[in-house]
């Protein structure tokens, strides 16, 4: 992991082996982004996740990208609960596609939210939410890509239409989900939380 990150221009300020070491490193360095394995010693259960959440409570909005072997809905919900963004949850096998993985790291570092498509599918499967029924199929596609952490430009590219059209769809999504502009909240994150049935 360290080699991959340094090869793509990142400065690695710490590499740790346990949850307590992770919390200490995050407190000390306050990195632009941290990449955390859910399972770390000493318990090898959810030590890494709990360390990341503890650090984010101390430093709200601290950018964290969590890697997991399997989709755990509870982990995704805990990570997204504060609604501030700068968070990601990917399955470990995504690291093998270096370009996509590095893009995810950069998006989280920039304050975005990145969710593995498999995580999104599991969360949405059991959480049909009433406000979403007002969305058109195209708006749901846009919102699904927002949930993956895609920018408007990336959504436009994936769906083959203009950024202006994405902006209109996004505005419609916010209106239909009754998400108003505020200095205290990120509307994209709130829309994604609604989509995932977590609002």
Automatic annotation (TrEMBL):
Q: Which SUPFAM superfamilies match?
A: C-terminal effector domain of the bipartite response regulators, CheY-like
Q: Which Gene3D superfamilies match?
A: 3.40.50.2300
Q: Which GO terms describe its molecular function?
A: DNA binding
Enumerate the spans annotated as HTH luxR-type domain. 128-199
Give every Response regulatory domain span.
1-107
User: Where does the record place the modification 4-aspartylphosphate?
Assistant: 37
Under the heading CDD domains, the entry gives: LuxR_C_like (cd06170), REC_NarL-like (cd17535)
InterPro entries assigned: CheY-like_superfamily (IPR011006), NreC/VraR/RcsB-like_REC (IPR058245), Sig_transdc_resp-reg_C-effctor (IPR016032), Sig_transdc_resp-reg_receiver (IPR001789), Tscrpt_reg_LuxR_C (IPR000792), WalR-like (IPR039420)
Question: What Pfam families does the database record attribute to this sequence?
Answer: GerE, Response_reg
Swiss-Prot/TrEMBL GO biological process terms: phosphorelay signal transduction system; regulation of DNA-templated transcription
Q: For this UniProt record, give its keywords in alphabetical order, as a comma-separated list.
A: DNA-binding, Phosphoprotein, Transcription, Transcription regulation
Write down the superkingdom of origin: Bacteria
Q: Is Hydrolase given among the entry's keywords?
A: no
PANTHER family from the UniProt entry = TRANSCRIPTIONAL REGULATORY PROTEIN NARL-RELATED (PTHR43214:SF24), TWO-COMPONENT RESPONSE REGULATOR (PTHR43214)
This chain belongs to the protein called: LuxR family transcriptional regulator
Q: Which organism is it from?
A: Amycolatopsis rifamycinica
